[in-house]
Amino acid sequence: MTKIALVTGASRGLGRNTALSIARRGGDVVLTYRSRAEEARATVAEIEALGRKAVALPLDTGDVSSFAAFAGRMREALQDVWQRKTFDHLVNNAGHGDGAPFAQTTEAQFDALVDVHFKGVFFLTQALLPLIADGGRIVNLSSGLTRVSAAGWSAYAAVKGAVEVLSVYMAKELGGRGIAVNTVAPGAIETDFFGGAVRDTPEFNRFFADMTALGRVGLPDDIGPMIASLLSEDNRWVNAQRIEVSGGQGI
Fold first, then answer.
1. Of the four listed, 35, 47, 64, 117, which is most buried by Cβ atoms within 10 Å?
2. Long-range contacts of 76-80 (CB under 8 A, 24+ apart)
3. pTM across the whole model
4. Can you tell me the distance from the alpha carbon of 3 to that of 173, in angstroms, rounded to the nearest whole number?
5. Span 4-245 CATH architecture
């Protein structure tokens, strides 16, 4: 039976690359977007061109009150498109970057990071648990910044650190259903994350390239295929792990 993956924040960046990588490996995809409907539809079209099925659903991962309704839309999509009641893989990718020195970080900045990157992951996964098939897989996205510090990212990294701890507890509590939960922690990547800073600012790009063993920053194609591989049966015994995919950043 074809595997179905839900990838949040998949209209662009790492989420889009992950969705396409899953499709290239023979999976179908439900992808979410917050405001970029046209880009989401374009990603769906690319997946369909690969001969796979795809659906795009709107979702604000920072709005916990919307998750019950989203689960209902997900249930309808599964029935309408696949005639199924469950899906197999959840990739909690959606997020945003917001950096500021520790002494200048506002409560509003902190709360927004917590709502999207931690509270959203916690309660969205909880809302979707009845729809995740036994033996499924969950991947939560973290960051290389939980291991190697960079000034200005204390709040973002702390929230991602919380996700790493949460992933271990999810693996423990969902293990009885055969659901494996892992964290993938990318290093600096050339996307439009944080306004495209790594991609578009030469000095920022060089800073991270110089601290990476392989001598460059990452590309979406360095991350998406790895996540798709982690979801496969080849990695069925990988569980409760933090897997950094950074080219050897900060070693």
1. 117
2. 77/30, 78/4, 78/30, 78/131
3. 0.96
4. 23
5. 3-Layer(aba) Sandwich (3.40)
21 residue type, one letter: S
The active-site residue, picked from 67, 70, 118, 156, is 156
Burial class (CB in 10 A: 0-12, 13-18, 19+), 208: buried
- Under 8 Å between Cβ of 248 and 213: yes
The pLDDT value recorded for residue 194 is 62
Tokens of 83: 């005639």
Would you list the domain boundaries of the chain?
A: 4-245
Please give the single-letter amino acid code of residue 10. Answer: A
How far apart are alpha carbons 110 and 116 in whole angstroms? 10
Mean pLDDT (whole number) for 210-232: 96
Q: Is 156 a catalytic residue?
A: yes
126-164 residue pLDDT tens: 999 999 999 999 999 999 999 988 889 999 999 999 999
